[in-house]
Specification:
This protein is an alpha+beta fold. Helices cover 44% and strands 23% of the residues. The chain is built from 10 helices and 10 strands. It has a 7-stranded antiparallel beta sheet with strand order 3-4-5-9-8-7-6. It is elongated and about 70 Å long.
Length: 311
């Protein structure tokens, strides 16, 4: 199953964490850390994910009809945080990592925010006139940044920036949700992803299993996140040599999502590792049915060779 590990991460990144919201108010938090960044992203969906080290949650809202691009970051820091300190620590790194011509550069402080804003007149030789604004918040051990940008900015667009900034709040004493089991589920998902990317598959399986147990009790994950959880839990079991648990995990996933081809494919690989070639072939046929393995139906001898090659 070692050859499948990269495929699984490529298919659905294990670090995904957060939600897409039909309402415009977004709230993000770091698993296991008290404090929430809240802002109104306007009439669009948003998603968020946790960095593999578990110390930062990132938000993106890209699909606004007015082309305002919104990203936000909430990070646990090692210094006493304030808006001024967070800007002093973070802005120089941003400026260094994106060396380009900036016009109308301004820094300001207002309503608990410290702000850096400027215009990028061109990008790679092409006219851009992109307005970029970085707003910083800080409290306790948390720094937050809200980054807003818009290409072909005109003065009338300033209200778009102001409206979003007016809703930005760092709430250091709140949790992202009042549901304790939901908080723990998010934490276990983040922990599992951290261990998975560190190739500590036994530890990853332990954390992912706790998340799946909570999900079985209270189904709150979106379809994409549920697939990530089952895929990576089963893979963690398989890469740890716990093939029976890997099989049970993928079989459970199939009962909940019967037309998702990767569950069948990974189950086929699990059976192949167990030496159960007939069962493996049957799962490959089902994976083929749902279009994960292209090509015509293979002869039995060729199918057996295929199992050894792709799993």
């Amino acid at each position: 199953m070692k050859a499948v590990a990269f495929l699984t991460l490529l298919f659905l990144p294990a670090t995904l964490f957060g939600q897409q919201a039909s309402v415009s108010k977004a709230r993000i938090a770091i698993p296991g850390v008290r404090g929430v960044l809240e802002l109104d992203v306007g009439p669009t969906s948003w998603d968020a994910h946790v960095r593999p080290d578990g110390k930062e949650t990132q938000l993106q809202a890209k699909q606004r009809a007015d082309s305002l691009f919104i990203t936000a970051f909430l990070q646990k820091v090692e210094f006493p945080a304030s808006a001024e300190k967070c800007r002093a620590e973070w802005w120089p790194m941003t400026a260094k990592s994106t060396p380009m011509k900036r016009e109308e550069f301004r820094q300001s402080e207002k309503d608990g925010l410290t702000v850096v804003q400027y215009i990028i007149p061109e990008f790679r030789g092409n006219p851009a006139h992109q307005k970029s604004l970085h707003a910083y918040l800080g409290s306790g051990n948390l720094c937050a940044e809200v980054h807003l940008s818009k290409v072909q900015f005109v003065p009338e667009d300033q209200k778009l920036f102001d409206d979003v900034l007016a809703t930005a709040r760092l709430l250091p004493d709140e949790s992202a949700t009042e549901n304790p089991s939901h908080n723990r589920k998010d934490q276990y998902l983040a922990e599992g992803s951290h261990f998975y990317l560190q190739h500590d598959y036994s530890a990853a399986a332990e954390s992912y299993k706790k998340a799946l147990d909570l999900e079985k009790q209270d189904r709150t994950l979106s379809k994409s996140f549920f697939r990530v959880l089952v895929d990576n839990l089963g893979m963690s079991y398989g890469l740890s040599g716990e093939l029976s648990n890997a099989r049970k995990t993928f079989e459970y996933g199939i009962t909940q999502d019967t037309e998702y081809p990767l569950f069948y494919y990974l189950l086929a690989c699990t059976y192949g590792e167990m030496g159960k070639m007939d069962e493996s072939l049957e799962q490959l046929r089902l994976a083929y049915k749902y279009n994960v393995i292209p090509g015509r139906v293979l002869a039995r001898s060729a199918q057996r060779r295929l199992i050894s090659q792709i799993c």
